[in-house]
Design goal:
The complex is a heterodimer of chains A (320) and B (100).
Chain A lengths: L1 H16 L9 E4 L4 E8 L2 E8 L11 H13 L7 E8 L2 E7 L7 H6 L4 H19 L14 H11 L4 H12 L8 E3 L8 E4 L2 E5 L6 E3 L1 H7 L20 H12 L5 H27 L6 H25 L1
Antiparallel strand pairs in A: 1-2, 2-3, 3-5, 4-5, 6-9, 7-8
Helix pairs in contact in A: 4-8, 5-9, 6-9, 6-10, 7-9, 9-10
Chain B lengths: L6 H16 L6 H22 L7 H11 L7 H16 L9
Helix pairs in contact in B: 1-2
Classes of the chains: A alpha+beta (320), B mainly alpha (100).
């Protein structure tokens, strides 16, 4: 299989570049039922290849072609992202795209805890605000295939799981009852948090994982990184376990002029928790349905109770 | 309570992982033998769990349905939170310390 992949990469890259390239042995970094990630070097250049897996695509994620186009749009807009290299219709029978393989740390727990990343954590809140402002300024016409999202979509996903979860229902009920006046939708990353960024000792290197990109209220992206699960154990730092929210919000407002108020973040922080609580259940379903058998996915079905507890705590605060 | 995966489903997942991903990597005979014994023990747990009656989640379904319909009387949040806490004491007891 690996030998075949090397030949497949060689042929695809040579075809697009119009010349022969020297390819390293591809290394599979991540498998799974929906996407593969391969590390490969071409003429010494560090590349990452995202390739479709068995052909099963999550209903609400972008196709690889569209994810690549969003990445291109972000790159053109000056957002820190891996340089997009090319889309490949057929890489050994499946679609794929190639991008630069950034150097740095991506593991959330390490980003929030490693002593050598102390300076990075100090720089990250403002850097995250600045990059998000750039993402939200990408013209929607540039990515016309992106669609909107709504609270109703979360209800649909919960119904597909088919299990009773009163805590999630309470969260959804509160979100319906307290919906803020909608802001004009912007191009949104959709999963903007520690765990989807590359960080080195100076701070932010690049934004990864654009498969959930869509059009939405800008405050959704702005608040998603506040979700407790994405603080990786450093709960006291509300912004992703790395810092305070206020300077981050202030810098974002300076750059966008959107004038987002701190209270608005509370609503979308709860929405982010509800989305992740449902996400845990749908991940467990991938195991239970036989699509992608794995203990890691299975146990998320139970760890979702942590997120449900956080939903209850946030609702208590909101009621107080 | 109606938690998925059930305890039985979790043992299945672990059995598959051990048989599919760990066993093939073991070359040490003694370790292979001990893993096979452990998998046998896990099989006993799995089959014993299969003999238990399925948990009744009718109460949870009714509560979820009523909240969905907007019927949320005072005290609902407290009741729901207590239930989540009980589930966490099984699934992830140390998590609760983070709120103290």
């Amino acid at each position: 299989m690996i030998a075949d992949m090397r030949e497949a990469f060689q042929a695809a890259l040579a075809g697009v570049l119009g010349r022969e390239v020297e390819i390293s042995e591809p290394v599979l970094l991540a498998g799974g039922a929906s996407k593969e990630a391969w590390a490969v070097d071409a003429d010494g250049e560090r590349l990452l290849v995202r390739r479709a897996a068995v052909g099963v695509i999550h209903r609400h994620t972008l196709s690889l072609r569209h994810e690549f186009e969003v990445l291109q749009a972000a790159y053109e807009a000056g957002v820190k992202v891996p340089r997009p290299v090319m889309y490949i219709e057929d890489l050994d029978g499946r679609e794929a795209f190639v991008m630069e393989r950034l150097e740095g740390e991506t593991i959330g727990r390490r980003i929030v805890q490693r002593p050598e990343l102390e300076a990075a954590r100090a720089a990250l809140p403002l850097q995250l605000a600045e990059e998000l402002a750039k993402v939200h300024a990408i013209p929607a016409e540039r990515v016309p295939f992106l669609t909107g999202a709504a609270v109703e979509r979360m209800v649909e996903e919960l119904d597909e799981v088919g299990e009773p979860h009163p805590a999630i229902e309470l969260g959804l009920w509160w979100l319906r009852e307290h919906r803020p006046p909608p802001r004009p939708p912007v191009v949104s990353h959709g999963d903007y948090r520690i765990g989807n960024v590359v960080v080195d000792e100076h701070g932010l290197v690049g934004l990864l994982d654009w498969e959930f990109a869509h059009l939405d209220d800008p405050v959704r992206d702005l608040s998603f990184g506040l979700v407790r699960a994405w603080r990786f154990g450093v709960d006291a730092k509300r912004l992703g376990g790395i810092g305070d929210v206020e300077p981050y919000l202030e810098r974002y407002n300076e750059l966008t002029g959107f004038g987002v108020r701190l209270e608005e973040l509370d609503y979308w922080e709860l929405a982010g928790n509800v989305a992740w609580a449902i996400g845990c259940l749908t991940q467990a379903q991938r195991h239970l349905s036989g699509l992608d058998r794995s203990v890691e996915l299975a146990i998320l079905g139970r760890l979702g109770a942590e997120v449900e507890y956080e939903i209850c705590s946030l609702l208590e605060k909101a009621a107080a | 309570m109606s938690d998925r995966p059930t305890a039985q489903e979790l043992t299945e997942a672990i059995e598959e992982f051990l048989a599919g991903e760990i066993l093939p990597t073991l070359s040490d005979h003694r370790l292979r033998f001990r893993l096979l014994v452990a998998m046998n023990a896990l099989g006993i747990v799995h089959r014993e769990l299969a003999t238990l009656p399925a948990e009744d989640d009718a109460g949870q379904r009714e509560l979820a349905r009523r909240i969905r319909a907007g019927d949320v009387p005072p005290g609902t949040l407290g009741r729901v939170k207590a239930d989540v806490e009980a589930r966490l004491l099984v699934a992830s007891p140390r998590y609760l310390e983070r709120y103290r």
